[in-house]
Amino acid sequence: MRTTYDFAPLWRSTIGFDRLFDLVDAAQQAGTEDNYPPCNVERLSEDRYQISLAVAGFSADEIAITAEQSVLTVEGRKSEKQQREFLYQGISSRPFKRQFNLADYVQVKGASFDNGLLQIELVREIPEAMKPRRISISGSSASNVRQIDGKAA
Q1: Is 57 left (phi over 0), alpha (psi -120 to 50) or beta?
Q2: What gap in Å lies between CA 137 and CA 98, rounded to an integer?
Q3: What is the Cα 57 distance to its own chain's centre?
Q4: How far apart are CA 41 and CA 58, in angstroms?
Q5: Calpha distance 68→66 (Å, rounded)
Q6: Which of 37, 60, 71, 84 is the most exposed, fewest CB within 10 Å of its CB?
Q7: Mind giving me the DSSP string for the chain?
Q8: What values do phi and psi take at 124, rounded to 5?
Q9: How does pLDDT run across 69-113, given as a tens digit for each residue?
Q10: How confident is the model at residue 146 (pLDDT cuts 50, 70, 90)?
Q11: What's the pTM?
């Protein structure tokens, strides 16, 4: 049994969280979509990630990887040159399209293809202007403070 949530009350009191609500809606509908090819998403360190897709039967030139704004898309399409007669076909060669939503400042650094495994490296690079910084406090120091002589009343 699936449960759906109504986010309408939150829309009235939040500003700028549109993308978050879209991601939650997409996650609720994720159970109905195809999960081919199988994949792993790993955190390698604080700011490094890796997506591994099992694409046995495909070659590197039959796979396209595109990063557009905050969405990473991996598409594969076999180029069948000759018809084969299979007695049993257990390795799928159907076309696929997998999309991954990327967080802010996450960029694709590279991809490699080896032994039927496509690995995509991701790095989160926060701009210097967005990183926390220490602010110095200016003003009078203890050496500049003068005490005024006062008489007790």
Answers
A1: left
A2: 50
A3: 26
A4: 20
A5: 6
A6: 84
A7: -------HHHHHH-SS-HHHHHHHHHHHHGGGS---S-EEEEEEETTEEEEEEE-TT--GGGEEEEEETTEEEEEE-----S----S---S----EEEEEEPPTTEEEEEEEEETTEEEEEEEE---GGGS-------S--GGG--PPP----
A8: -95, 115
A9: 889 999 999 887 777 888 998 888 889 999 998 988 899 999 999
A10: low
A11: 0.68
Domains and CATH numbers, the chain: 1-33 (no CATH), 36-130 (2.60.40.790)
Bridge partners, residue 54, by sequence: 117
What's the pLDDT tens digit per position in 111-128?
999 989 999 999 998 888
Contact of 96 with 75, CB cutoff 8 Å: yes
Main-chain phi, psi angles of 96, to 5 degrees = -145, 160
- Rounded Cα–Cα distance for residues 106 and 86 (Å): 43
Q: Which residue has the tokens 């005024």?
A: 148
* CA–CA dist 38, 147 (Å, integer): 75
The two three-digit tokens of residue 102, written as one number? 């990327």
